[in-house]
Write a structure and sequence with these properties.
The chain has ten helices and 13 strands. It has 326 residues and is of the alpha/beta class. The protein has two domains: 200 residues, 3-Layer(aba) Sandwich (Rossmann fold); 107 residues, UDP-galactose 4-epimerase, domain 1.
């Protein structure tokens, strides 16, 4: 098959492109490069620069490259920004997906994998989040991801398109230094940034009902996440008409304080964190049950938190050589 990867020049998208190609699939990248980096796209993979709101360009791209499957990662993804700019998020994430699906369902595309998020769950009061845990998103970002799942599922039922919605948990790590996350919006790069600026990492609240008082999260290595996309793509190819919704996580919780302690140990920076006020909307604990992904895809995460931090640090020090002095 030939897969169109929207957002394929991004941090996660670039890993998905490589994983699909390693599995013998053909890839085409579609990215507006607002946050993506063209150099992440292999030289022998076509790159189409455009918005998912451009239906004509999408239709032409699908036809020109004889696309038969789509992995849709292109989206705005900052929770705080979504609160400030909800209309922008709904336009990019929901309307952009609707336009894409119009083009997809008019083309000979048979499979569609959606990048969703654990943000659809909101603040679940459970030890392990299953796919049956009620969805109650707490931000416009989470709402757009849930609405996206509804759109994809409805389109699949109406047209026979095979679909999978993958609910990512906290993504970290890199397959190689040049593919590392260049943003500073997730915990690992946020801590790297503080440490290498000779500043203390921040803990947002230490009075949660958890063993050490800090929030507990499930972290997934981006390589494992990319391999989950390959497994989902193969499952959709094997079973036409499939409709999957799956958590992609490790099923292991790590607290913010534990994660910072591991980061400082690996990087060699000995700077204790400082505690600041809670951030509105942060749930105490969000940890995945990944049993359904194992059963449906035969997939299981292989990398641990040490792998995530070590590979992410290699990418950080590649871009910030002075950071190695830690």
């Amino acid at each position: 098959m030939t897969w169109l990867i929207t957002g394929g020049a991004g941090y996660i998208g670039a890993h998905v492109v490589r994983a699909l190609r390693a599995a013998g699939e053909r890839a085409v990248v579609y990215d507006d490069l607002s946050t993506g980096i063209a150099d992440r796209v292999p030289s022998d993979v076509p790159l189409v620069v455009g918005s998912t709101l451009d239906g004509e360009l999408l239709a032409r791209t699908l036809a020109d490259h004889t696309v038969t499957g789509v992995v849709h990662l292109a989206a705005k993804k900052q929770v705080g920004e979504s609160v400030e700019r909800p209309l922008h998020y709904y336009r990019e994430n929901v309307e952009g997906l609707r336009v894409l699906l119009e083009a997809v369902t008019a083309a000979p595309v048979t499979a569609f994998v959606l990048s969703s998020s654990a943000a659809v769950y909101g603040m679940p009061d459970v030890d392990l989040v299953t796919e049956e845990t009620p969805c109650a998103p707490m931000s416009p970002y989470g709402e757009t991801k849930l609405a996206g799942e509804w759109l994809v599922r409805a389109a699949g039922r109406a047209t026979g398109l095979s679909t999978a919605s993958l609910r990512y948990f906290n993504v970290a790590g890199a397959a190689s230094p040049e593919l590392a996350d260049t943003g500073v919006f997730n915990l690992v790069p946020m801590v790297f940034e503080k440490l290498t600026e000779d500043a203390a990492p921040r803990v947002f609240g230490d009075d949660y009902p958890t063993p050490d008082g800090t929030c507990v999260r499930d972290y997934i290595h981006v390589v494992d996440l990319a391999e989950a996309h390959v497994a989902a793509a193969r499952a959709l190819q094997a079973s036409p008409g499939t409709d999957l919704t799956l958590n992609i996580g490790r099923g292991e919780g790590v607290s913010v304080r534990e994660m910072i302690d591991r980061i400082t140990a690996i990087t060699g920076y000995d700077r204790p964190p400082v505690t600041t006020a809670r951030r509105p909307g942060d749930p105490a604990r969000v940890v995945a049950s990944a049993d359904r992904a194992a059963a449906e895809l035969g997939w299981k995460a292989r990398h641990d938190v040490t792998d995530m931090i070590t590979s992410a640090w290699a990418g950080w020090t590649r871009r910030h050589p002075d950071a190695r002095r830690g």
